[in-house]
């Protein structure tokens, strides 16, 4: 995830909604699959990409990262975006094992863990000369839907140096052997609309036969942690070994630096795009 928003910003700069720009940009030459079309998310799931959306498979997403000089992630990622692009979603499968969903989530406790972890991370940020971060709170509290086995949440953070804010929307779709993670990133003032748009595509998501949560069988590998750890990047699973705040702090210091940088650029790009459109009308 730590390069997530750099990929987002690079893709948005390609401006697929602007035909003239796209024709001159190598991103336009990537193997975009335009909906309606059914695509594979590796061997674990499929997605029905509706009309008005575009998709990049793992190879296309890797090519996208190479074009933008962005090192590849450890696992395969898949890109979904509306046309014209107003937000982007990255899908990635996490081989966690079967995550039991009988844990009762405590949003206040999870938020406090993030804040305490951020305090730890800020010590390292000061040593590196980076601006410190402040966890403002939930944009949307963690919510688990037991019917569709979906966990969602959205956290709002702020760079204390320039007061730029960042927010994204995370979804974890639970399966038999692992979890499909999806992160939706958008300009903060467009996030509500982006979430609504993204949710409309989830009806087309389906785990492959034998991979759904309901197909669990005794003897399947079970994750060492529950729902809360999915929110904190798995930190709670190893908290007893390394110390809770140190683990979460390490996770935050690796991720939020890129999130904040990306949103500063993204917000400026969106504003400039609208200004250009208005000037041509």
Account of the 3D structure:
A hairpin with a 4-residue loop joins strand 7 and strand 8. The chain has helices at residues 4-14, 19-22, 58-67, 107-127, 191-199, 227-231, 239-242, 244-280, and strands at 33-34, 37-41, 45-49, 53-56, 78-82, 87-94, 133-145, 150-159, 165-174, 179-186, 205-207. It has one domain (4-280). Helix 4 (107-127) crosses helix 8 (244-280). By secondary structure, the chain is α+β, with helices and mostly antiparallel strands. This is DUF2167 domain-containing protein. The chain crosses the membrane at residues 244-270. Residues 1-22 form the signal peptide. Keywords: Membrane, Signal, Transmembrane, Transmembrane helix.
Key terms:
281 residues, globular, 11 strands, 8-stranded antiparallel β-sheet, disordered N terminus, 36% helix, 8 helices, 3-stranded antiparallel β-sheet, disordered C terminus, alpha+beta, DUF2167_membr
Rg from alpha-carbon coordinates: 19 Å
H and E string = HHEEEEHEEHEEEEHEHHH
Distinct helical segment count: 8
Strand content: 25-35%
Question: What oligomeric state do these chains adopt?
Answer: single chain
- Uncertain parts: 1-23, 235-281
Rounded average pLDDT:
76
**Strand order in space, largest sheet:** 1-4-5-6-10-9-8-7
What gross morphology would you assign? globular
**Count the strands?**
11
Tally of structural domains: 1
Helical content, roughly? Answer: 25-40%
Q: What structural category arises from helix and sheet content?
A: alpha+beta
Distance between the termini: 38 Å
Q: Biggest sheet: strands, sense, closure?
A: 8 strands, antiparallel
Transmembrane segments: 244-270
Pfam family, one: DUF2167
Organism: Dyella dinghuensis
Keywords: Membrane, Signal, Transmembrane, Transmembrane helix
